């Protein structure tokens, strides 16, 4: 399953974001992994389920479908203990970096309203610059990676030259534990441009910065947009960073709780909700809902929480959703479950990649694939598209 680390200094709303993202009124009881441990839980990305377009009633197994929206599980890791100097082991530094090691990317939550200082203490809104928090996290991660490879750098360079080794393979050996790839190393090296044996500390840091951006991409969630001072700061953050989603984790949590309690009808990510049980709401609750509607949903289009998850998976990690079926006429598995599984795959994946993702044996015995919508055989180098329904034909 895709793993996303949720990071940020204390009091920015990490736990609120985490609770909101992992609270669902879609029936999740059948998932044994809903709460993995206190710091890990299952959240969802959402996409249109093909059931609506095909006029079918689906019976999902690995995901859920509600009103034609497919909820596909991903794992969130709540990474606590980020304080300056984490890379030196301060605070829960090592735990923090260890969590990050496993993640495919991270969502960095900042207090866009500027009301928490660098240690996480509450201050007057608008007094703290959220850009400082972003720079600080980038530095922590960079120095952590530098700590792994920096002290041996000259030795490694000599080894590459003397033994005629490949740069990317030697660097990969050093850094594979933190989830980097050979392609990422080559790309980052090319981005620095100059010859690696001439690099000083500055170039090495530059290389590592590029490498982190490629292998551990970051999405910034500019939280607390319900506080007016956030607006100006969001412009500032967006001027400097391209991957930013304004959000109000608190508003999303309130809406999901109200939906779960049957008070409102609300689809995460949408720009509205409908009150269905007004009698059960008190004046304060109605006024809070009105505030959310006017100051968040109408102004920003959504609370940003679901948008952040979807952007992380579909835009930053570049995933697509493919639906494997065994019976291409009924769009079902062998037991008749229609569109049973929604599989997340990297863009550019081919039918054989899907086969391996379903099961190693199916991958090994792969023969060809059929596009179930068109009922035709597709070539083995066909690049799967988002929403494709595919039958894999394999030897027994
Ligand atoms: N106004 C506003 N407050 C929020 C929002 N999200 C969280 N908060 C508040 O910010 C405070 C801190 O939220 P938490 O979710 O506990 O923050 P955290 O980052 O997990 O903090 P630590 O557990 O200390 O690391 C709480 O009082 C939340 O109610 C938001 O979107 N808007």
CATH class of the domain at 318-394: Alpha Beta
Ligand set? guanosine-5'-triphosphate
Please give the count of helices: 14
Q: Architecture of the domain at 318-394, according to CATH?
A: Roll
Q: Report the span from N to C terminus.
A: 27 Å
Coarse morphology: flat
Quote the CATH topology of the domain at 318-394. Answer: Ubiquitin-like (UB roll)
Secondary structure topology:
Blueprint (H helix, E strand, L loop, with lengths): L2 E5 L6 H9 L12 E3 L2 E9 L1 H5 L9 E3 L2 E10 L14 H10 L2 E7 L18 H20 L3 H10 L4 H9 L6 H11 L8 H15 L2 E6 L6 H11 L3 E3 L2 H12 L3 E2 L8 E2 L7 H18 L4 H12 L2 E7 L17 E4 L4 H8 L1 H5 L1 E6 L4 E3 L10 E6 L2
Parallel strand pairs: 1-5, 1-6, 6-7, 7-8, 11-15
Antiparallel strand pairs: 2-3, 3-5, 4-5, 9-10, 11-12, 13-14, 13-15
The structure holds guanosine-5'-triphosphate.
Protein name: OBG-type G domain-containing protein
Family: Belongs to the RelA/SpoT family.
GO molecular function: ATP hydrolysis activity; GTP binding
Protein architecture, described:
Keywords: Nucleotide-binding. This is OBG-type G domain-containing protein. GO terms for molecular function: ATP hydrolysis activity; GTP binding. Belongs to the RelA/SpoT family. One of its GO terms (cellular component) is cytoplasm. This protein is of the alpha/beta class and 396 residues long. Among the domains are: 141-213, Helicase, Ruva Protein, domain 3 (Orthogonal Bundle), CATH 1.10.8.470; 318-394, Ubiquitin-like (UB roll) (Roll). Helix content is 39%, strand content 19%. The strands form three sheets. Strands 1, 2, 3, 4, 5, 6, 7 and 8 form an eight-stranded mixed sheet that branches. Strands 12-11-15-13-14 form a five-stranded mixed sheet. It has a two-stranded antiparallel ribbon with strand order 9-10. Helix 1 packs parallel to helix 10. The longest helix is centred in the middle third of the chain and has 20 residues, at 130-149. It is flat and about 70 Å long. The two termini are 27 Å apart. The relative contact order is 0.13. Bound molecules: guanosine-5'-triphosphate (GTP).
